[in-house]
Structures are given as C-alpha cells and as structure tokens.
Amino acid sequence: MLSTDQEVTFRQTGHVTVVNLFSPPKIAEALADIEQWSSEFLRQLPAQRRDWYLERADTSGMVLRKLDEPVYQRPVFQAMAKSDCIVAIVEQLIGPGVSVFFSQVFCKAPNIGGPKPVHQDNFYFGPNDLDATLTVWIALDDATIENGCLYYADGSQLGPVYDHVAPADAPFNLQIPADKLADFSMTPAPVPAGGVSFHHGNTWHQSSNNSSVKPRRAVAMHFLRNDAKLIRPALDYDPGVVVRIS
Ligand SMILES: O=C(O)CCC(=O)C(=O)O
User: Fold this and answer.
1) Which residue, among 67, 83, 8, 72, has the nearest Cα to 34 in the 3D structure?
2) Does residue 220 have its Cβ closer than 6 Å to ligand 1?
3) What is the number of helices (H) and of strands (E) in the chain?
4) What was the pLDDT predicted at 48?
5) Domains in the chain with CATH codes
6) 92 Cβ partners below 8 Å, 6+ apart?
7) Ligand 1: which of 64, 69, 106 to mutate, most ligand atoms within 8 Å of CB?
8) Per the CB 3.0–4.6 Å rule, which of 15, 37, 79, 222 could disulfide with 102?
9) Which of 32, 5, 16, 13 is nearest to 196 (CA)?
C-alpha cells in the first residue's frame, strides 16, 4: 500500500514513485528474459513492422525500441503484474478488481534510444472512466536524466484529455500539439532500478533521448478497473490479450 503522503502526492500531482518494490534478483530475471526475447524477436521481425519496433536513429536498422505485451506473453512479467505490492497499490488508486489490457517493454538503447513526446495515456486508450486507468512503470535499470527517465507535468491529470496529433510518417506516435506544450512545465522523475512510477491516465508525460552509455530499460503495464471499458481508443488494443489480475 501507499502511505497517506504517497497517496496525497499521487492525487495532487498525477504520479508517485515508490522505490525498492522489486529486488535485484527479480530485476535480473526480468532483464535476462528481455535479452532472450529480444534476440528471438529480432530474428523473425518482418520488414513492414520495423517502424513500430526499431529505433530510427540507428543505421544498422536492428536496434529494438520496444516489445509488446510482456504481461500477456512472458510469465516473468505476468508474475510482476500480479505481485501483492503492485496489486495493492493499483487497487488503492483506481479501485478493486483490475486487469492489464496492454503492456510494453521500452529498451532505450545507449546513445540511440529516441524520445517519446508529451502525451496522455487516456488519449490513446479512450476509457469511459478517466480515473479507471493507471500506468505502472517499472524501472529495470536506474532511469536518470541522462539515459531518458520520464518527465511529468504535475497536476495535469486534473485537466482535460486533449486531442493529440501525430507525424505523417509515424501515425502511432500520438502527442499533445506543440501550441499546448507551454501550459505545463515538465519535471524529471528519475527512478532507481526496482522502483516503480505510477501515473494517472491523464497525466502528461514524456521521455528524452538516451544520451548515455547505459541502457534505460523499463516495463509499462497499463491497468484498467474491470467495470470500465475502452470506448474510444486511438489505436487498436486487442481484447484477446487482456490479463485479469484481481
Ligand atoms: O518509457 C518511456 O519512455 C515511455 C513510457 C510511456 O509513455 C508510458 O509508460 O506511458
């Protein structure tokens, strides 16, 4: 559970970081699984899916940006999503009875990992209840300003969900329009490996390039309360991969 102060932080700012939720051996196990999964995945990745999965800045064209659905596909990550410490906090923040409907590993390779522009998860997901989604972002490496930690706009969860735009050559890379960005300043939220950043679905967030020699790997698990629905999703979310957690 979160302490009262931690819960107040979440309600006021739209995010809260909790350190040491996963032990070093658990994180090592997750990283070993990513290593194995990544090499299998890259070997069979078809050319038409490269835009979605690979870093554009890399000339070899084989540096992985992300992997989809670790909670559905990989037992190590499903166990993390079902761990008592995560379920207790998720239910404290969005209410009892929850599922993971989408999850991703973000690899942010050293010197190559690119930015994720400012966005609100609830624009992507389009839930009928804006308070029924929660993103659980688990740091698998120390996430620092240099290697591309998340940045949040404190208090932005109290405002509306804005229409997003996307570049023509990356229609999936939805982002808040440039003329709105001055409305909030973005504050870095470094997280040590094994720590978790929880954010509300409305909270504006972004991450920068990895300009360091170290990777910044993290897994994002998107939870939804079981009585809510995604009624206006901006991308396709496959109902067949939903994992009921509680
Ligand atoms: O890890 C990142 O760089 C982006 C993560 C993100 O946007 C999310 O978890 O919603």
Assistant:
1) 67
2) yes
3) 7, 11
4) 87
5) 4-244 (2.60.120.620)
6) 1, 2, 7
7) 106
8) 222
9) 16
